[in-house]
Each structure stands twice: as C-alpha cells, then as structure tokens.
Design a protein that fits this description.
This protein is an alpha/beta fold. The chain has eleven helices and 16 strands. The longest helix is centred in the first third of the chain and has 22 residues, at about 5-30.
Length: about 375
C-alpha cells in the first residue's frame, strides 16, 4: 500500500549503517552531548559553508532558542507567514513577542517579500521567512529590508534541508537557520531533533548555553535556559543520512518531475520551481478548487493525501486576540485548495503513475 511517507523503506536500505551507528552509541554509553552531536554539528556547519551549528532537541526549540539568542522578548514584533506549521509563530508568542503575519505568494506558498515593508514598525525586530514544502523564499528583498531597518533574519528551514537560492544553501542568508530532524523530514532522525546554524559566534554561544539550562560549565548557570539537547542516538542516525542528503533530495526532485509530467487536469495547479531556486520537495503540493473530491477519490483507491495546512495561523483560536488584518487572502485561499501527495525518495515511478492516474480520473 502507498503511504504518504514510507519510513520503513529508507530504514531497510540504510539498516546496516544505522544499526551499526546506534550500536556504537550504546557501546559507548555516552548518550548526551557526546561525539556524534559535536561531529554532526561540524558536518552540518561544513555543509552550509562554515557556519556555527548547535544541535537542539527539536525544530521548535531551534526557532525558540534562535529568537532568544537574538534577544527577542516581550513586546517585540516578529514578521512571518500565516501559512506554515504552528511552531513558527508559537515560539514568538511563548516569548511574549508578537507575530505579525504577511500574506504569501500562492505559486510557492512562501511569504511575499513585496508585502513585508508595510508591516515594519519601530517594534519590529526579526523576520522569519519559512522555506515551505522545500521551496526557498525569495531572499534578496528580505536581506535588503533587514539591512535597511537593522532587523534580524531567522530562517525556518524545517522542510528545506539542502534547498538553494541562487546557488546558496537556505539557512545561510540571515542571522540563524533553523532545522528539524523530525522523522518525516528530508534529513531525519527516528525521534525528535533539531539544529541551529549561524555565522554569528555570539548568537551561537548564547544558544549553546540556552540548550543546556543556561550553563557553559556544569552547575554554573549564567542565564535561565532550557533542557534542549540533541541526543547521541539521534545525532548518529542523522549523520548516516547526511552523507546521502543530496542523493535523497535528487530522488525527490525526480519524483516531482514525474508527477508534473503525468498529472493532466485543467483544474489542478502544480507546484513550481523558480529559476533561481533549487526545490527539495519535502512535499509535492497541488492546488485545486476540487481539492476535496480529488482527496476522496484518492482515499477510495487506498491512496493517502494530506492538507498542509487547513487553517492559516491568523485564523487559529490561539491567535484570535491578534485581530489579524484582512489582507491575508492568498493564505486563506491556499488553505482551501492545497493537497499534498505522497512524496519520499523511495517512492517508485510505478506508484507515482498510479497516483496520477487516479487523480486524472477523479470526478
């Protein structure tokens, strides 16, 4: 049976290496902030051109600690997109800062840089662009705005490990890049895990303290922090997969091309890849006004699909107090039309043809 993400297939392919890596950690009996974490930090820093890298417990904490590392607190405003997972805005609110939502470009589902400047106020401190579904945000205008207004940039790269904008890896355009290693991600562990990269040594040092109860030296605490440490077993698993990440992303890109060539419906809008971008297809997300009927037809044929995301963040009950403006229409429209299809590197061409055939014949 086709699954949205078949984690067993990849494990079977990598089983000897992953089992050996886990066994090595068990034999060492060193489970917290050990050799695998430090080596993974070095390897991910190198992959991104030499940034500092700090392993943390999950992608949500990566964003939270990046905000803290950038000095964000009560009353500060942080500009981001409402069309993303709750974590992006949740961490802003948890610090008693204020999420300020900017609408999206529907072709990429990413924040619209042309609409950011009008939302900047004296309280604005950070912009968080989200490279949603693996397609990079148009970063040049955002970088220009950050310089013009002296704003920090924290990139949410949870779904975009290895994606590129104008030949440069996402996560390297701003002050911090935040990654998730959740099991379904392009680069994934078998539990929770995350990473923050930064070219700023002071920010990285602060995040290292924050992840470990505000401490650099055991039992000596300089600031209030968190217990947010990436564990050795998860780091060992990610290291095995990191050595293959470009190959795995290329398989996702190949599968996206097969989808694009074989979905033949006038009422379906296929995802694009901008010429200056390298999409890594964490999701292959189509749009259609007949989304619900297509999803039902897939379900009737034992093919899964998913809606990411059915309710934009400004419509969530938890953010009702923000009195969101009425200029977020593209986010609302996409929420009514998006449908993500099965996507993972080991998905076969035969399976994609089967999915496309069902879509093409849906009423």
């Amino acid at each position: 049976m086709i699954q949205m993400v078949d984690l067993q297939r990849q494990y079977r392919l990598l089983k000897p290496e992953i089992d050996a890596a886990i066994q090595e950690v068990l034999d060492s009996a060193h489970f917290i902030l050990g050799q695998n974490v430090s080596q993974l930090e070095e390897e991910i820093a190198s992959y991104h051109g030499g940034s500092h890298a700090v392993g943390v417990a999950n992608g949500t904490d990566a964003l939270l600690l990046a905000l803290r590392g950038c000095g964000i607190g009560e009353g500060d405003e942080v500009i981001t997109t409402p069309f993303t997972f709750i974590a992006t805005a949740e961490v802003i609110a948890l610090l008693n800062a204020v999420p300020v939502f900017v609408d999206i470009v529907p072709e990429t589902f990413n924040i619209d840089p042309a609409k950011i400047e009008e939302k900047i106020t004296d309280k604005t401190k950070v912009i968080i662009p989200v490279h949603l579904f693996g397609h990079p945000v148009d970063m040049d205008p955002i970088v220009a705005l950050s310089k013009k207004y002296s704003l920090k940039i924290i990139e949410d790269c949870a779904q975009a490990f290895g994606a590129e904008y104008k030949g440069k890896k996402v996560g390297t355009f701003g002050d911090c890049g935040c990654f998730s290693f959740f099991p379904s991600k392009n680069l994934a562990c078998y539990g929770d895990g995350g990473m923050v990269i930064s070219t700023d040594e002071d920010i990285s040092r602060s995040i290292r303290m924050l992840r470990n109860h505000g401490s650099n030296i055991k039992y000596y605490h300089e600031i209030l922090g968190y217990n947010s440490r990436l564990d050795e077993i998860q780091a060992a698993i990610v290291r095995v997969k990191l050595s293959r990440i470009d190959e795995l992303n290329n398989l996702r890109r190949k599968n996206a091309d097969i989808y694009r060539a074989n979905i033949k419906r006038d009422d379906v809008i296929l995802p694009i890849e901008n010429p200056n971008s390298r999409h890594v297809y964490h999701q292959f997300t189509i749009r259609s006004e007949n989304r619900n009927s297509i999803a039902k037809h897939l379900q009737d044929n034992d093919i899964p699909s998913a809606i990411y995301y059915p309710v934009p963040l400004h419509k969530q009950a938890v953010f009702a107090h923000l009195n969101a403006p009425d200029d977020l229409r593209m986010s609302e429209k996409c929420a009514e039309e998006v449908l993500s299809l099965p996507m993972f590197p080991e998905l076969t061409e035969r399976e994609i043809h089967q999915i496309c055939d069902v879509i093409n014949h849906a009423s």
